[in-house]
Structure formats: C-alpha cells, structure tokens
C-alpha cells in the first residue's frame, strides 16, 4: 500500500509539472484560438536561457526572473515576425507554422549550445520528504506548488478586463476588431504569457533532468493533458494533468517490470486516443456546434 501511495503522490506531482507545459497551450488557445505546437521547444529554450544567465554569473533565482522578461519578449517577437504574417490564412497553416518553429528551435538550441545536458541547480536538497513510509521528491513537490499557483493566477487573469478581451479575440477575430480590440496585440500577449509558463516549466524540469533537447519532449504529455482537460479550459489543465500524471505513474509502476519498461508513453498515447474517441473536446472543453 505504501508503494501504491508513493506512486500516486509522486505521479500527481509529476502531472502538475506537466501542467506547467500544458498551461502554455491553453493560454494561447484560449486567447487566440491557435494550437501552439512549439510549446515544447519554448520550454527547452527557457531552460537554456536560465542556464546561460547562471553561467554569466547571475544567481539562479535572478536568472529565472530575468528569464521571465526575455521569454515574454520572445513570445511577442514570435507573434510579430511569424504569426502576424499568417492573419487570414487557414488555421491548419498556422498550426504547421508552430510545428515548424518547434522543429527549428529543437535543432538550433542544442546546435549552438551543445547537446550534452546542462544542469540547473535550484538549491533544493536532494533528500526526499518522508511521510511515514512514503518518499516524496522535493523538486516535484515544489513544481506541483508552482503549477497550482500559476493555474490559479491564470484563472484570475481571465476574469480581468484584459483577460476578457483575450477571450473575445479567441471567439471571433473580426468581431473583436469591430469593437476596437487590437487582435494582433492580444495574440502577442498570449504568446508572451506562454513564454512565462515555459520559464516555470524549464526551470523545474531542467533541475530534474537537465537542459537539453529532451525538454522539448514535454510537448507529448502536455498534448495529452490539454486533450483530456480541454484546449480552452484552465481548470482542465489541473484535472487533466493530475489524471495523466497519476495514470502515467501508477500503471508503469506495476507494468514496467513485466513489460521491460516504456509503458508510460503507451499510457499517455492511450489517454489521447480514448479521449478523442469518447469526448473529443475534453472534460471541460467547450463543444462548438455548427448548424449547416
């Protein structure tokens, strides 16, 4: 039972950390209606930014603070140079553009900075938190808390005046233009916010597994989270990340020994497939019905 509880708790915390990656998806989609397949590479880039700032002499926390500014500016720049030129194009072309950005960043980052993992030391003790017979990873615990704080902040943000404007842009670009909302500015802000989410994910995951191209693979569990929770739901990020994290921890915890490993990716893939077949708009996603 203690082994099961340990898998459950650490799986939930890992899932919450997946939520940091998935939050960038939802922030952009909920604000602009665009599916951002470059979020994984943005997390990798954020990890490299923090590592480079630490290498030039900044403390890790000051590097994270400055990284927040730099990644927000990167999001604004990506919208200005890439997304704005795609206004009026079919949505599939915009999605392909974000996929191209993902592939480009995934190659350029390690190409210039080296493929060997770079470690980010957050100063968190390696000793686990021990509650009875259950061992809890301290970094996972901190990552789970950070994820909950950012998700709560996102919920509050979309209740503000600016958040309401961003949701209006997501619903209808033309109508937003007609009432004086700057669609381009709104989309730029949403990409900037996704950059902030990427910094949080890059710092936490970079301290867990190091910073290299594999950080971009967080795109896969993040997609599972947003498909399960709903592309336009911040609450769905919380619920979906916990489900993906728990199932991706408990099931492999018992099956990996029998199957020889690798069952976590299988579980994640099944979550995506089953959700699409049963509830394609997710648990909390909005179901849009078009009358023909």
The succession of helices and strands, N to C, reads HHHHEEHHHHHHH
The percent range for helix content is over 70%
With strands numbered from the N-terminus, the spatial order across the biggest sheet is: 1-2
Cα shape:
globular
Structural class category = mainly alpha
Largest sheet: 2 strands, antiparallel
* First-to-last CA distance: 54 Å
Number of strands: 2
Runs in which pLDDT lies below 50 for 5 or more consecutive residues are none
- The Rg value, from CA coordinates, equals 19 Å
- pLDDT averaged over residues: 85
Distinct helical segment count: 11
| Strand residue percentage | under 5%
Outline the secondary-structure elements.
Blueprint: H1 2-32, H2 39-55, H3 60-81, H4 91-113, E1 129-131, E2 134-136, H5 138-157, H6 161-171, H7 173-178, H8 183-209, H9 219-229, H10 234-259, H11 263-278
Antiparallel strand pairs: 1-2
Helix pairs in contact: 1-5, 1-6, 1-8, 1-9, 1-10, 2-3, 2-4, 2-8, 3-8, 5-8, 5-10, 9-10, 9-11, 10-11
Care to describe what's here?
A hairpin with a 2-residue loop joins β1 and β2. The model has no long low-confidence stretch (mean pLDDT 85). The protein has helices spanning 2-32, 39-55, 60-81, 91-113, 138-157, 161-171, 173-178, 183-209, 219-229, 234-259, 263-278; strands at residues 129-131, 134-136. A two-stranded antiparallel sheet has the order 1-2. α1 (2-32) packs parallel to α5 and α2 (39-55) runs parallel beside α4 (91-113). It is an all-alpha fold. The protein has a domain at 17-214. The termini are far apart. The protein contains eleven helices and two strands.
């Amino acid at each position: 039972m203690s082994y099961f509880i340990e898998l459950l708790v650490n799986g939930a915390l890992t899932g919450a950390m997946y939520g940091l990656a998935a939050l960038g998806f939802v922030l952009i989609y909920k604000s602009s209606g665009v599916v951002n397949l470059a979020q994984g590479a943005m997390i990798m880039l954020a990890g490299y930014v923090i590592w480079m700032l630490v290498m030039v002499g900044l403390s890790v926390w000051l590097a994270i603070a400055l990284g927040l500014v730099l990644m927000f500016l990167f999001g604004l720049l990506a919208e200005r140079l890439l997304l704005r030129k795609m206004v009026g194009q079919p949505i599939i072309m915009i999605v392909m553009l974000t996929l191209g950005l993902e592939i480009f960043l995934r190659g350029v980052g390690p190409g210039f900075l080296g493929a060997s993992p770079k470690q980010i030391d957050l100063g968190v003790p390696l000793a686990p938190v021990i509650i009875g017979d259950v061992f809890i990873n301290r970094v996972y615990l901190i990552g789970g808390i950070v994820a909950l704080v950012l998700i709560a902040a996102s919920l509050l943000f979309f209740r503000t005046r600016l958040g309401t404007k961003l949701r209006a842009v997501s619903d209808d670009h033309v109508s937003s233009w007609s009432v004086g909302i700057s669609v381009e500015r709104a989309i730029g802000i949403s990409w900037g916010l996704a950059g902030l989410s990427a910094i949080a994910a890059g710092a936490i995951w970079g301290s867990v597994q190091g910073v290299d191209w594999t950080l971009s693979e967080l795109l896969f569990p993040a997609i599972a989270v947003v498909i399960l929770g709903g592309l336009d739901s911040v609450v769905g990020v919380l619920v979906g990340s916990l489900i993906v994290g728990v199932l991706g921890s408990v099931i492999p915890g018992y099956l990996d020994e029998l199957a020889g490993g690798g069952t976590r990716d299988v579980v994640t893939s099944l979550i995506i497939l089953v959700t699409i077949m049963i509830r394609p708009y997710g648990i909390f996603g909005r179901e849009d019905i078009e009358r023909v």
